[in-house]
What we know:
heterotrimer, A: alpha/beta, Rossmann fold, four-stranded parallel β-sheet, 11 helices, 15 strands, 37% helix, globular, B: mainly alpha, four-stranded antiparallel β-sheet, two-stranded antiparallel sheet
Amino acid sequence: xxxxxxxxxxxxxxxxxxxxxxxxxxxxxxxxxxxxxxxxxxxxxxxxxxxxxxxxxxxxxxxxxxxxxxxxxxxxxxxxxxxxxxxxxxxxxxxxxxxxxxxxxxxxxxxxxxxxxxxxxxxxxxxxxxxxxxxxxxxxxxxxxxxxxxxxxxxxxxxxxxxxxxxxxxxxxxxxxxxxxxxxxxxxxxxxxxxxxxxxxxxxxxxxxxxxxxxxxxxxxxxxxxxxxxxxxxxxxxxxxxxxxxxxxxxxxxxxxxxxxxxxxxxxxxxxxxxxxxxxxxxxxxxxxxxxxxxxxxxxxxxxxxxxxxxxxxxxxxxxxxxxxxxxxxxxxxxxxxxxxxxxxxxxxxxxxxxxxxxxxxxxxxxxxxxxxxxxxxxxxxxxxxxxxxxxxxxxxxxxxxxxxxxxxxxxxxxxxxxx
Amino acid sequence: xxxxxxxxxxxxxxxxxxxxxxxxxxxxxxxxxxxxxxxxxxxxxxxxxxxxxxxxxxxxxxxxxxxxxxxxxxxxxxxxxxxxxxxxxxxxxxxxxxxxxxxxxxxxxxxxxxxxxxxxxxxxxxxxxxxxxxxxxxxxxxxxxxxxxxxxxxxxxxxxxxxxxxxxxxxxxxxxxxxxxxxxxxxxxxxxxxxxxxxxxxxxxxxxxxxxxxxxxxxxxxxxxxxxxxxxxxxxxxxxxxxxxxxxxxxxxxxxxxxxxxxxxxxxxxxxxxxxxxxxxxxxxxxxxxxxxxxxxxxxxxxxxxxxxxxxxxxxxxxxxxxxxxxxxxxxxxxxxxxxxxxxxxxxxxxxxxxxxxxxxxxxxxxxxxxxxxxxxxxxxxxxxxxxxxxxxxxxxxxxxxxxxxxxxxxxxxxxxxxxxxxxxxxxxxxxxxxxxxxxxxxxxxxxxxxxxxxxxxxxxxxxxxxxxxxxxxxxxxxxxxxxxxxxxxxxxxxxxxxxxxxxxxxxxxxxxxxxxxxxxxxxxxxxx
Amino acid sequence: xxxxxxxxxxxxxxxxxxxxxxxxxxxxxxxxxxxxxxxxxxxxxxxxxxxxxxxxxxxxxxxxxxxxxxxxxxxxxxxxxxxxxxxxxxxxxxxxxxxxxxxxxxxxxxxxxxxxxxxxxxxxxxxxxxxxxxxxxxxxxxxxxxxxxxxxxxxxxxxxxxxxxxxxxxxxxxxxxxxxxxxxxxxxxxxxxxxxxxxxxxxxxxxxxxxxxxxxxxxxxxxxxxxxxxxxxxxxxxxxxxxxxxxxxxxxxxxxxxxxxxxxxxxxxxxxxxxxxxxxxxxxxxxxxxxxxxxxxxxxxxxxxxxxxxxxxxxxxxxxxxxxxxxxxxxxxxxxxxxxxxxxxxxxxxxxxxx
Lengths: 420, 529, 355
């Protein structure tokens, strides 16, 4: 402290500083890695394999790898082999943006496949917009967004929530007249419920006929809430229905408590908008048969395309030993599978991997989705047209197809029912 | 002559009205609209009820086929089963189904009608009285295919007392729309006997179109009675929810309280010991299923000592490797135990996986008992309450009546003097950690039927357990009990009013404020540390 | 106090970095020794972590008060700057914040008023966390709540804040948090110069705090803090008021943490209640413990080493990171009472391990 600056001291500190800067350069082995080797093209994955979303999100990276292997077996895309770069954002929303930036700037990926929750997508959005990159987003979501840097592979509410609610309000679905909306507290449930309230207002359903409650993401104690649902259901006024927009681990917790309190789907059906076959893996669904969900794909979809996909997935799980069930196929898996193929087809059509060309070529290509529908991107937005399935939970933790759409309805990005 | 008579007889059989009816009834199930299908199921139930035993058996075969999704419709008729093994629905004779025979789609309306029809037909086909009792209970809720004529037919042939005891009130309740006012009043009384909101709604909806004044009065009085009981039910329900939340908190916090009371060590890995207990229960379940499948319903009981030992073992290992060197540095033990918790979570994650574990639900944790009003005692929470109670009693007994308990109390009150009196304080510490961890393992077993079991399940309990321990007072078991009950009850009272988050926030802030005023908690430790 | 050599090393490194960044990241950016905006961004984030670690070390290493809820102050600073950026974008550029859209609001709630003004926001960043720290510290220290109790309660406080902020109707973006920032003080978000400038500001702030706290702990006030840490009862017995030194250090610590948060959030482009989770706050304590509490250099080293390791590993071996972190913590906490500073070059004076 009192010695003052000596040459030795200066050298030491200079060395330490360089070490510091050098150490900080460790996060990027990419500086040494070349941008793209001659015959490979890279695709990046932003799916968490740890944290709250791990159980459902983790398997999506494996599906991307599976699709890449399929394409590579057929000679790759324009002669280039696909290399999949996987990351783990650990269900930590800022980390999605961080890793997205890394994949784009360091790994120079041609396209990103990622995100499940809308929060994670919104955190990656500025990153892809700033670099004019493409994010293929495989989950159904709340709409109200139309960025040219995101390919929305799955349905906005107009083609997911509304068909199911209309079914429930119709004669076949029980003529629902009263609605209890229960959701996790974040943008997707809040937006869905806003649109539903607007829809019901347009149909003349009074405000007294619906209730809206939110729980924190990851909430697990539904005892009091289900008591409230029972009370709401037993009041006069018509058939009650629960519109469930909780996500992740809250779904099995909710249904377990629902069954334990002895409520039957025949009395109070629950439309679990984010409920997947994977969510019921730990539950006995004999007491829960009859609850509904709505997706662009169900494992029970009929057709050779689906059989082929399910077989390929089972084989992939057996070959690679990833800790997921090879006999469970969920919508986001199929959506991201479609996404990889759509990207490959568009790149082939455009003759280039550059994002503007791929985006321009996308509306003119289509892909045979395992759900049995032919999917392709809209001409005037980056939404992909998908079929609609309404599923009914059966005794063996699967969803039977209750209803499916005639063709692929045009997705509506900005809902006319948004209030305010 | 005889031949002609025989042939005529056979021809008449084939063309008998009974057969033509059956064909019509089974064809009606193939109607295109859902409403028509539901109506067909109702007609089937009625035909079976009024047509005698053979007719009832035939009708039930069809309804069961609809529920089992083996009913097929084709242009040529209706079938049960597929391909060459199919049966003709009307005659139940083998008759290969054409290739275009479509599966009958089943949705909730059809499910409900089928369940109702099946229950109604059971009254006529099943010889076991218990099955008929269950069918009547089902008919209470599922009335889609029920009609007075069916009930009257059932009452005519029923001989068993237990079934009649349920059938008669059911019939009374069905009379809500009868022409005679006295019957309507009787129906209202019968409905009001079971005081639930659902029944109250039934009465109020009927009263909306009721012309007769006496019936209106009877209805209003009945609804008032129901309302009183519902309020009582609500109060009890809140109490029960609070008790169950409290028992969960107590199980999580009991072990923590012991360890903290004795050594001032805060174990941030306590939640993970709970997780280990739950995973141990899962292993026990798999073992029982493999070795003694007949005892599968009792795996939770068998798992209790196993989970205790498993968690205690991990606790002892943690103590030996980590805590032993940190006894005089309590703040560092916080960080060390946090690191242990991170390690445990990730070890489980990579070895077993992130998926929610599947637990078989034995009969004693499924469903609930309807007590009064709309208050249902759900059995899984009752199980947790029972385990919490047993754990608490067990700990009190250990502390009071065993040498080990005596040592623990002595060391907690005055470590130095206890050492001077010949008690090995370190050894007592180790045993206490084993006990504390083991209790967390028990919590894991109790929580397995309630919550999702995955590697992260323990992280939700940390802050709450701390609050219980800190509020209750260091080392005070009674304090822990009162604190968990207080926290649980306040939480449950606020939740329906302002939501789950507000409840948690208010409770935490109250506890923090309380600690500011009274830092030693509810029951201050006696003696010097 | 701390090894004089180490202290100077770190100070000079920080100074060098602060001076070099604008050059290496600006005119020299494309060259061989240049620093890409991505790297600058990482350096900037690590610098804010170092600042945060200094803040915690001030009250833990020197005053003996462990806080497991410092994320609260960090997040407060972050939220305040985020509100400024969103409001400014809304008022000046017409960019409607997401939280208004999905909540269906036509205007921002009352507490958002004046946030388009940077001076107002900056003042709040200094005042609000300070007030909260002061209020809570005053209540606790006066009631002699300390040690483990205090630590647990800070955990609970940040947990409560997290629960509140997760609610969407409190008007802070809820679970989504806030993102979609347009600009800060004229710097466009996403522009390369912005990343470099923010990183420079962060390293500069870290340097300033390092030097300031270094002076502070060498002063009589600092010696008082150490005395409080070592034996508060004795100090009280000798007639000193121990509440005010602790309170002053605690408040200063909260404000520094808030400044760190305000520098962090523009660099990651999003703030979310996850920052308030108990785990994040514990990680801050881990940095300080690993680096060596009781020496400011230790805090900085701990923060830099662990965050750099984390960034590096989560990029390509994400599964490994939790194991490495937990084993590292256990080994260091059990084996090295003063953290990594126990491994430092011999001949440096070490602080006696008080607790």
